[in-house]
Design a protein that fits this description.
Layout lengths: L1 H10 L11 H6 L6 H12 L6 H8 L6 H4 L7 H12 L6 H15 L1 H4 L10 E7 L2 H6 L4 H5 E2 L8 H5 L3 H17 L2 E4 L2 H8 L6 H5 L1 E3 L21 E4 L7 H13 L4 E3 L13 H4 L1 H18 L3 E4 L2 H14 L4 E4 H8 L10
Helix pairs in contact: 3-4, 3-6, 17-18
The structure holds iron/sulfur cluster (2 copies).
The site of one iron/sulfur cluster has 13 residues, from helix 2 and helix 5.
């Protein structure tokens, strides 16, 4: 891995094209905390010119949004560099597995009663196609159209929280079960952009195995959809927040799909800025997180949307927080839940 990191560090041409997309730089305007600045500082440390303590604070402030990686013309894998250096220079003192469980505990309590609800046994239409149900969705115990279509074998966490939290041991462990399941599957369908991008990054999967991983937008490709007869969103304005980890082509497919829905007025957001929440980032950097959230809140308010959709549970929480700080209380839903509750999918087969 260090060879891979070294290659990526050397690939940076210092062009600075990543700066304008970095939510931290846009708030702090400090070159030390830009993708380019972090790379120069890491190289300085590796060459013996900087001490560990001169980098850690700046590395820890990174939101791990991957926007720099997505916008780098030299294809520098900044996410990999920052996550591994973070883990090596300041390894997590607590197990991120335990931390994730603690973070999900309030959800389990809120949905406590659902634990005792007897869900009817599901016989999915496609048993050989797997559904990667993320940690939050699992803890909500909700059954959606995805459970009815695809088999849910109870995947492990996508491992992104372990990697960004500096817990490489649990990162490797969480990947093992997922890799085993993916290798045996025909396809694996994801509904969370962050889980999807994390699994696509598993270096243990070859290109053919990665082709089996598909996003929710792929199963609605080129379809014209309709709202259910009794949907409360008829004639309403709907917008979609693009999670930082969402691949642009998936976003475009989602926009096409939402544009195809009769009876809703889909409004494309004016910019695709970060919601600021960043998983547990909000807990450790509440001021920076809130400053980023305020910018996003203005974009959402200007859209005048009645309903805000997204495809990442961390963003859903971030968007709800945005509404509290901007006094703009609108319904926010996961795309999966919107499709399940509001779209007429009676004859939908899932994959054609
Ligand atoms: S990380 Fe990429 S975009 Fe940023 S300065 Fe280096 S080469 Fe340019
Ligand atoms: S991952 Fe996001 S916050 Fe971190 S340096 Fe890159 S763009 Fe900035």
């Amino acid at each position: 891995m260090s060879e891979e990191i070294e290659k990526n560090l050397k690939r940076c041409s210092r062009c600075a094209l990543c700066l304008k997309n970095c939510p931290i730089y846009n708030i702090k305007k400090d070159e030390n905390q830009t993708p380019r600045g972090l790379i120069i500082k890491i190289l300085g440390f590796l060459n013996g010119n900087l001490e560990k303590k001169q980098i850690i604070k700046d590395l820890k402030i990174c939101l791990n949004c991957s926007r720099c990686k997505a916008n780098c013309p030299s294809k520098v894998d900044t996410s990999l560099i920052f996550a591994y250096k973070n883990a090596q220079l300041a390894p997590s003192k607590i197990s991120q597995r335990l931390f994730l469980k603690l973070k999900l505990l309030p959800l389990s309590i809120v949905y406590f009663l659902n634990l005792f609800k007897k869900n009817k046994k599901i016989e999915p239409k496609h048993k050989d196609i797997l559904y990667f149900k993320g940690c939050v969705a699992k803890n909500q115990h909700k059954i959606t159209f995805l459970d009815n279509l695809f088999y849910n074998p109870d995947f492990s966490c996508c491992a992104l929280p372990y990697l960004t939290g500096g817990d490489i041991k649990n990162y490797k462990k969480a990947k093992e079960r997922n890799i085993e399941l993916i290798k045996k599957a025909k396809y694996v369908v994801f509904d969370c952009a962050s889980c999807y991008s994390a699994v696509l990054e598993y270096e243990e999967l070859n290109e053919n195995e990665k082709k089996k991983l598909i996003f929710i937008s792929d199963i609605f490709d080129d379809m014209v959809l309709e709202l259910k007869q009794n949907s409360k969103y008829k004639g309403k304005k709907v917008t979609f927040h693009k999670p930082c980890h969402m691949i642009q082509k998936d976003f475009e497919k989602i926009e096409n799909m939402l544009n195809s829905i009769k009876d809703i007025n889909y409004i494309s957001a004016k910019d695709d800025s970060c919601c600021g929440f960043g998983g547990s980032y909000f807990l450790f950097h509440p001021i920076i997180s809130t400053k980023i959230a305020l910018k996003k809140a203005r974009v959402i308010k200007d859209s005048q949307a009645d309903l805000i959709l997204t495809a990442c549970p961390s963003c859903t929480m971030g968007l709800r927080y945005n509404q509290i700080i901007s006094f703009n209380f609108k319904k926010t839903l996961e795309l999966r839940d919107f499709m399940s509750q509001e779209i007429a999918l009676d004859d939908f087969k899932g994959i054609r």
